[in-house]
Amino acid sequence: MPAQNTPKNCLSCGKALHGRADKKFCNDYCRNYHNNQLKINSGNYVRSVNNVLLKNRRVLEKLLPETEGMIKVPRDKMLHAGFQFTYMTHTYTNKKGNIYYFCYDYGYLPLENSWYLLVRRKDPQL
Fold it and tell me: For each successive 10 residues of the chain (126 residues), what is the average pLDDT?
């Protein structure tokens, strides 16, 4: 029994489709709009986390002068600049067992009395 020709509609705007049997959209605008709407909901969480990570990196970059390799900073100064300690990209444990927390290529080591040692990776791996 031959397949019946049922009219197909554009997945984005609903207009009747003409042309290829496997066509899903009436034009590039509808295809792009439909795919962007699918991605907008799934990417919101990732985008918001990455924005916090980038802000943390900017704070560390601002507090650590380019001429210095490392510097000690009080916790309050980091918080006042908008740093959020719960967000980081990775950790690094040195031979002494100290754990450095990183936001991309900038990191910090918790010290005593709410002080932090800010560091910059010399040779970030890509």
Answer: 68 89 91 85 81 96 92 97 96 96 96 96 68
Burial status of residue 89 (CB atoms within 10 A of its CB: 0-12, 13-18, 19 or more): middle
Contact assessment for residue 119 and residue 109, using Cβ atoms and an 8 Å cutoff: yes
Torsion angle in degrees (nearest 10) through CA of 86, 114, 79, 117? -80
Distance (Å, rounded) from C-alpha 75 to C-alpha 45?
27
Nearest to 11 by CA among 40, 43, 27: 27
pTM given for the model: 0.66
